[in-house]
Amino acid sequence: MELSPTVIPYNLTEEQEKKEILRRYRALLRVLKPKLKHGDRELVRLAFEMAADAHKTMRRKSGEPYILHPLAVAMICVEEIGLGVRSTICALLHDTVEDTELTLEDVQREFTNEIARIVDGLTKIGGVIDASSSQQAENFRKILITLTDDPRVILIKLADRLHNMRTMDSMKREKQLKISSETIWVYAPLAHRMGLYAIKTELEDLAMKYMEPEEYRNIAEQLQATRRERNRYINEFIRPLKDELQQTGLRFQIYGRPKSIHSIWNKMKKKNVSFTEVYDLFAIRIILDSDAGQEKADCWKAYSIVTDEYHSRGDRLRDWITRPKSNGYEALHTTVMGPQGRWVEVQIRTRRMDEIAERGLAAHYKYKEGSHGEDRFDKWFAQIREVISHQDTDSVDFLNDFKTSFLADEIYVYTPKGDVRMLPAGSSALDFAFSIHSDIGARTIGIKVNYKLVPLSHKLSSGDQVEVITSSKQKPTEDWLNFVVTTKAKSKIKDSLKEEKRKIAEDGKYALKKKLEGMGASFGRHNIDLLVSHFKQASPLDLFHQIAIKNIDLKEMKGFGLLGDKLEAPKPERKRHTEQHAGEPGAEKHVNVKDTELIIFGERGDQIKYTLANCCKPIPGDDVFGFLTATEGLKIHRTTCPNAARLLANYGHRVVKTKWAKNKEISFLTGVKILGLDDVGVINKITNVISGELRININALTIESHDGMFEGTIKVYVHDKEELDKLVNRLKELDGIETVDRFETGEEK
Ligand code: MN
Predict the structure, then answer these.
(1) CA 693 to ligand 1 centroid distance, Å
(2) Which terminus of the chain has a lower count of CB atoms within 10 Å, N or C?
(3) Are the beta carbons of 280 and 292 closer than 8 angstroms?
(4) Alpha helix locations (H) across 317-375?
(5) Ligand 1 center from residue 188 Cα (angstroms)
(6) Strands 466-470 and 444-449
(7) Host H or E run for residue 181
(8) Is pLDDT of 280 > 90?
């Protein structure tokens, strides 16, 4: 691949810069020329002028004028991806809406809705995806939604990414790493899937250059050092083939092509070998100039010549002509034994196939009108759309599933009737069953591959004929999840397991209900939540299920002190009793059950542990609710707590109604903040009210005055809210006091 010149010296004068920008613009017009129809030139010019004007004060990190970036992206779109006029306009404008004053409405007004929509798509997927977070997954999902809306969006985005990767040198190392890992994660596989092999390879190599600079340099140097020897070998390998091919009258080109640094490095890692031990550092490519209709025959003719000359490895023939990859790739690949006993990969394809291989999607559309009626990309997009719209699982999971389901290479297998199904490489026999229909997948009891019975986990290979045997009595089991790879199979199995669990759980639910009734305790949400927490289950469903399958023995409940709970599911505004005897405020407390209606568990059957939430520091008399935490048992929050709304809204099932019981023996530490006019006697007045009049213990008191005002914070021990309210009201009555407020968050002052 030819790299377009990207770095220019930026110590240019303004005049020289303008010249350089115009020079690049004219170069763009030159490559676009064959595609320009009447009026197009003016549109491209308008887009260029709008972009140049919008970005006119901006510079890239390297110091060069920003407009050179959209110009370069447009150039990649035309030259390397083969896109046309509309895409060029979008590429020129791709950063304007996000980074400049220009709006989508401006674009829409000056151009078409179509162009505005693509620019909008490019704007939405801007920004760096944060590695390994759900934010990343969410962004990726956005990319996919826009992608399936118009594939040009993703092609322009890939051009944008490629140019950024090519010109990352002046960026901070941290940013280089972030962008590189994102490129490896998302963009290179996407480029691969779109059939843009050259761009995929370059993206991988560039990412590796930043992520593994030493290994990169090392391999590059070794490739360089062995180049002569390799060329000599390639020539030796090619010579007899050239003669034969010429004699059959084929028009062709034959050459050896080194594999990418990234792919060599992958091989070294995978096989744990050194550079010198990687045998396929290059592949031989035969490109045929065939007449339409002769392509396939010519390719096989060339194949026959190659395998007459060199012995082929029987298991290494790949026929992607009869059955192209779903990214459009067509070619014959074979591995043969060359001179000096070295295995050599030979790739045979026609010029048309080669263009599709290099330029992917765009070239594919160019040839679409021909005999290739069935459109693989459309099918692929339709599949992605289906999955996105049926996705409600965790986003990060979705991303991983998506990678295996849609970005992996594909295999093709046959139904017993001879219909072809494409599946991601690594699919199991069971994935095939689910790909036919989810009901068939769910009822699979056996699978025959090439007439032989195989385990459901059997990994399929291209060309397998697969027959599914079903039984109406069969049901998916947990272990199926260990070997299916497709998103469809996974989500169907999960749904079915959940449904099955729900059915089984019904028995457990019934048994528990009987048991509780027998003990005089009610079968209410409150009691169930406590049982869920005690048996360390994630949900009531899990509890019922565990009881049903006898993992939880109801006899274990005998030892617990159970009391009847006559209340229904708790609502925050109605209150339940939780009598409490507290030690130090904030410390763990125990509730005495003498006259409560709680269901209680524990060794002695008379205590329930709870803690007061630190975020809102409740005191008796506050409106409170209990919240079952996963690790710290029951936490008591005030209903006015800043966290309350979220907890109540999202975890309603874990909320336990609680109410304070009267208890005059325990006091709780709380605080009030007082604002007022500065006055010599103010401290005296306040302390008189608190400890003299109300006999409340003061824990700490600080007063700060400035500009004639004072601000006091007082920490006091009170028994309940009533007492605190009385204190607050009494203080407010004092002369010169403006406001008296309780600490809302319990923060230390
Ligand atoms: Mn950009």
Answers:
(1) 72
(2) N
(3) no
(4) 351-359, 361-367
(5) 17
(6) antiparallel
(7) helix 173-182
(8) no
CA distances from 644 to 576, 623, 638, 647, 669 (A): 17, 11, 7, 5, 21
pLDDT at residue 659 is higher than 80:
no
Helix-, strand-, coil-residue percentages of the chain, each rounded to 5 = 50, 15, 35
Q: Which residue has the tokens 């590189």?
A: 180
Coil/strand/helix, residue 656: strand
Condensed to tens digits (0 to 9), the pLDDT of residues 702-738 reads: 777 777 778 888 888 887 788 888 889 888 888 878 8
pLDDT in tens, 349-399: 999 898 888 776 666 665 544 434 345 566 666 666 666 655 554 555 666
- Where do you find CATH 1.10.3210.10 in the chain? 14-211
423 with 486: CB under 8 angstroms?
yes
Domain with CATH 3.30.70.260 in the chain: 668-742
For residue 290, what pLDDT band results from cuts at 50, 70 and 90?
Answer: very high
pLDDT tens-place string over residues 136-188 = 556 666 666 666 667 788 888 899 999 999 999 888 888 888 888 878 877 88
Residue range(s) of every CATH 3.30.460.10 domain in the chain:
220-366
CATH number of the domain located at residue range(s) 220-366 in this protein? 3.30.460.10
**241-245, 272-276, 387-391: lowest mean pLDDT where?**
387-391
Ligand 1 centre distance from Cα of residue 69 (Å): 7
Catalytic positions are: 98-99
- Residue 569 is given by DSSP the state S
Distance CA 407, CA 387 (A): 14
Q: Does domain 14-211 correspond to CATH entry 1.10.3210.10?
A: yes
CA of 65 to the centre of ligand 1 (A): 13
Residue 546 to residues 421, 477, 478, 504, 631, Cα–Cα distance (Å)? 40, 16, 15, 9, 20
Alpha carbon of 626 to ligand 1 centroid (Å)? 51
Greatest CA separation for the chain: 117
Residues 6+ apart with CB under 8 A from 186: 129, 140, 143
Q: How far apart are CA 288 and CA 351, in angstroms?
A: 6
Q: How far does the centroid of ligand 1 lie from the alpha carbon of residue 95, in Å?
A: 5
The arrangement of strands across the sheet holding 466-470 comes to 452-454, 444-449, 466-470
Mean pLDDT of the 676-700 span: 79
From ligand 1's centre to the CA of 407, what distance in Å?
24
Full-model pTM: 0.56
pLDDT in tens, 17-44: 889 999 999 999 999 998 888 889 999 9
Q: Which CATH architecture has domain 668-742?
A: 2-Layer Sandwich (3.30)
